[in-house]
Amino acid sequence: MKKKKIVSSLAAVLLCTSLVSPSFAANSPNGNLNNENSELPISGFTNHAEMTKKLKQIEKASQGRVSVDVAGYSHNGLEIFQARVGEGDRVVLIESEIHGNEKTGTEALLNILQYLGSSNSPEAQKIRDEITLVVLPKMNPDASELDRRANDLTWEEVVEEYPSLSGVAPAWNYYTRTLQDEDYSQRPGFDVNRDFNPDLDYTPQPEDFPGTSSDPGWYITPESQTVRDVYKSLKEEFGKVEVFVDLHHQGQYYVEGTDDLVTMSLSGQFVPNPNSPEGSEYAEYADNYNYDFSRQLNVAAYNALQSIGDSPFNNITLYQQDLDLPGTALGSFALNGSGTVLFEVRGQTWTMGQKKKGQLVKAVETGLNAIISGVANESVYDLDPEKYEDIPATSYRPGL
To answer: Is the separation of the CB atoms in 220 and 171 below 8 Å?
Structure first.
């Protein structure tokens, strides 16, 4: 019942409406997502100050296994932390909270760091020996503190940094309207997950603005610049970043052909394959792109969640495919040779607050552990990438 692959025409149209608007799952029309009370409790999630303290505790308790550094700063001067554990040749880079109201990934990453930093188990030692895990557990701290999607930066401040953009129309992903119950008119910001570019040395050019969702970004936000710099430094150190995982949230959807609410969606496709006619504009990256490896990583996460047994953790679907989003971190880094995985957990804080936190964090943690272990023990490389196509589709409406 869960193996149907084709979403109905109406469902496909409605999904496209939400999925290709300003960022992944930015404005889902599904479910009761307009809240009469927008002040939903989120105190159960870790804020920036609490995370800072927690990271220091993990680092100290790890006795040198975990190192924590400041990779950069947000526009408002908050630290963007980078934590690193392991000494292996293969790099797994994971980021969370590129959107500040999508918080379960941060909790999962802190749990994983604590385990790998403190455990003496053979499994933990194997992971530390075989991979280098690098995480950015709250890469958009200004948005996180404001509990909203976008960062806290005006177009005027961007122009001050890049005077050549004077008189240019603001970037298309600049929010000055109301979005997800957040009025950006008095405190604008950018969807940071459209500010990436596969050219890691790109500098903003006036002719590239305002752009569209199918165009690369510009690295005009300090948050995207920080991630880009971390990625570049790892490439210089290791030759490549083997895996990049981006942790997000989405609206409320259903497993295709059922009335089961989706717990999490997965994806490994964010730009057309550069080796295909559809992806010809990315031909310069064709030798780097490894879609089959991305599919294997997604299958590893999916299989681990299915193995839990008959539960909401089985309700995993394939996110919308056939996307062309080179301005996302995932699209940009896939073109640079990384195997890529998108996690889209059900419900942002503006729709659910901290409801289902424990269950959703466990889903993220389970999927991440499968990817990390699978790369460390090399089992992921033996998985059939075609099994990715068997992951159930996402539906806008419950099956009848």
So the answer is: yes
